Amino acid sequence: MNPLLPRLAGYMQEKMNAQREAAVKTGRPIYDFGIGDPREPTPAFIREALRNAVPEVSQYPSIAGLPALRRAIADYLSRRFSLELDPDREILPCAGAKEALFHLPLIALDPARPLCFYPDPAYPVYERAILFAGGTPRTLALTAERNFLPDLTAVSESDWSRTSLFFDCYPHNPTGAAATPEYHAKLFALAARHGFLVVCDEPYVDLYIDTPPHCALQIARKNVLVIHSLSKRSGMTGYRSGFMAGEAGTIAVIREARANFGVASQSFVQHAAIAAWSDDAHVAERRAIFAAKRALLLAHLRSRQLEASGEGAFYLWVQVPAGHTSESYAGKLLEQNIIVAPGTFFGPSGKGFIRLAMVPTLADCAKAIALWPS
What we know:
By secondary structure, this protein is of the alpha/beta class. The protein has two domains: 128 residues, Aspartate Aminotransferase, domain 1; 234 residues, Aspartate Aminotransferase, domain 2, CATH 3.40.640.10. It contains twelve helices and 13 strands. The strands form three sheets. Strands 2-8-7-6-5-3-4 form a seven-stranded mixed sheet, sandwiched between helices. A four-stranded antiparallel sheet has the order 9-10-13-12. Helix 4 packs parallel to helix 5 and helix 4 crosses helix 8. It starts with 11 loop residues before the first helix and ends with a helix.
């Protein structure tokens, strides 16, 4: 067995599933704000596209994906960000963001440049991907004082020169923070100067309240790769469908390497993805639903004098009340079958916070508020 496995704590999703199973045994209603798996149905036209595409004979999908899917993605990037990308050379479908993120260090890590940076707190897959690829993980703390943006000046020039990868995520999971174009311009200038790849994980870029977040490729193309997903944007978490986009040379290397892993969405999932990327109306509807949940929860939290942030994604990052730790406050909520993620699940800088994913329906959010312990 890989000696790395015993060193890893249980994966966050498995921990949250265990909490849910325990809550189920109580027989009482469950209000699950833990794992980011929204309860709103996948739009009917997407489900219909999948059903209509199920073939009589199932064959292996290609790593490059259907040409029609790459064109639909290019059209989306043009509509949403005014980006013009070559669908054949600069776009590559993937089986969801998590899969792509995990495999990227296996492709991009140069043993002579072992350092790989990621934010703290963060989605756990970044660190684990680096470790399984044999890289050296380094964190950059995100604090409220810096608007949850990393201090790029904290890294020495010599360390930048030993860096292969930098994982970036905005709108940010778990804090919901947004990035400024100025921050990204500084980061991408460092990447171009020192030759490392910035992987911008952007699955929440269409879930905003007021100002639409930018895409990293609007700021720079050199040494920048973006990853998008249909999971939250279109209610397709179980479909496992997303894409990578970047410079043609980078995409060519990734495409060739991914043939070794054999990862590509089934053709019928790709047809559903074509429908999803080609439509913006259902995304606006979902955005409105999440905004209503956010407003309801924020008003409640503030009425309890609980500080909460999160202008992007569909998360609220909540400071626990005095006298509590992340774990103890999550445990107190669990007594009412209200499931939340302790901030420490996302790294040491999550100490003193919990994350709420706006997963339950609006009606269930209201019921959870009524049960919220004092």
